[in-house]
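Protocol step 4 of 6: structure prediction from sequence.
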Amino acid sequence: MDSVSRLEAILLKRFHRGPMDAKPEARLVAGRGLDGNADQGGSRQVTVIARERWDALMDRLDLFLDPSERRANLVVSGLELAHTRGRILRVGACRLRVGGETRPCERMDQAAPGLRRALGDQWGGGVFAEALDDGTIRVGDPVSWDVP
């Protein structure tokens, strides 16, 4: 594991299309997602973006938006998320199975014109995943890929 790979932020959505609230920690529930998040169950229980990808996109677009504008639940650093469908992402002591690429919605263009299109390139919108374990995750926790 790369020592700089870590959980940078946890963001929970209070209700559908509602604001994203930053939290220092959150509880993952296997098969459901993040406790207290509006989206529960299904295959898109948790969404994840890579901080480096977000920062590069902001530089390219000459924007200065916080990663919370992407509306993903977890912001990680030190890992590439593109083309990771089926892989297991370990966050602290918990595991998430990546289901695929998170396609950006029209809300991204409300944050900044052209953001939706830019995020659609090379998995820039991050990934969606399902929670495999119950447990608490905290900002600063290490993140890594489980070896297949």
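Step 5 (inspection) to follow. The radius of gyration is 14 Å.
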